[in-house]
Amino acid sequence: MQPDLLRSARAGFLQALPFLLVLVPFSLLFGVVATAAGLDVAQTMGFSVLVLAGASQFSALQLMTDHAPVLIVLASSLAINLRMAMYSASLTPLIGSAPAWQRALVAYVLIDQTYGLAMQRFERYPRLSVPERIAYLFGATPVLCLPWMGFTYVGATAGSLIPAGWPLDFAVPITFFAMIAPMLRTLAHVAAAGVAIVTALLLAGLPSGTNVLVAGPLGMVTGAVVEGWSARRRLRGRG
């Protein structure tokens, strides 16, 4: 591997390591909850390997536990995971010229953490080449995806050994705080996040995942409007 690609891959690997503090308990929790809900180890692992999306996995599991119709389970999971379409749209200008097999692999391993890390890195170093960006994503992937699968298995097979009083669900909010906080560097970022959060909370009573589908685009539109306003203000200041 070329030195610049190796450097990018190493940066992705190292910068992803702190997320293990939340990914490990989160994946353990899914393994425990899934087997407690009646899934066997193979079915539980199928969730984590094929779906590879914690939020929708928990949502689907809850609906299955409530004996919801299959179509409702699928629709809810799809609604929650549609945020990945927004992630993909924002990454396309940055890695869209990469070979098809690389883009396909990125699509599979694209989770909230890899996206958050990648966008921070690409914004901080805008002159990175497409191969360097891909190398960064591939460097972070083993740290973020393999432990999710591995510790799901641990939770599914040894869940009964984990004390019931351990608050493993703390990992969910901490993960998202850790991803979002470093990205709130401008007024546009703060406005987008604020509108998305408020909208999601106000629409929390809608069917699972629907509030996120509304909040995400509203947040992006708000960010774009504020960024345009800020750019015009800077131009007037220079004039």
Overview features:
239 residues; mainly alpha; 2 domains; 0% strand
What does this structure look like?
By secondary structure, the chain is mostly helical. The protein folds into two domains: 3-167, no CATH class; 184-239. It has helices at residues 3-16, 20-36, 41-51, 54-65, 70-81, 83-95, 100-109, 112-124, 130-158, 171-180, 187-202, 210-238. The chain is built from twelve helices and no strands. α8 (112-124) runs parallel beside α10 (171-180). Helices cover 78% and strands 0% of the residues. The termini are far apart.
Radius of gyration: 19 Å
Overall tally of structural domains: 2
Write down the overall mean pLDDT: 81
Tell me about the biggest sheet? none
How much helical structure, as a percent, in the residues? over 70%
The low-confidence parts are none
Strand percentage:
under 5%
Number of strands: 0
Q: Please report the number of helical segments.
A: 12
Order of H and E elements: HHHHHHHHHHHH
What general form does the structure show? globular
Q: In angstroms, what separates the terminal alpha carbons?
A: 48 Å
Secondary structure class reads mainly alpha
Describe the structure in brief.
By secondary structure, the chain is mostly helical. The protein has helices at 3-16, 20-36, 41-51, 54-65, 70-81, 83-95, 100-109, 112-124, 130-158, 171-180, 187-202, 210-238.
Helices, strands, pairings?
Blueprint: H1 3-16, H2 20-36, H3 41-51, H4 54-65, H5 70-81, H6 83-95, H7 100-109, H8 112-124, H9 130-158, H10 171-180, H11 187-202, H12 210-238
Helix pairs in contact: 1-9, 2-4, 2-9, 2-10, 3-9, 4-5, 6-8, 8-9, 8-10, 11-12
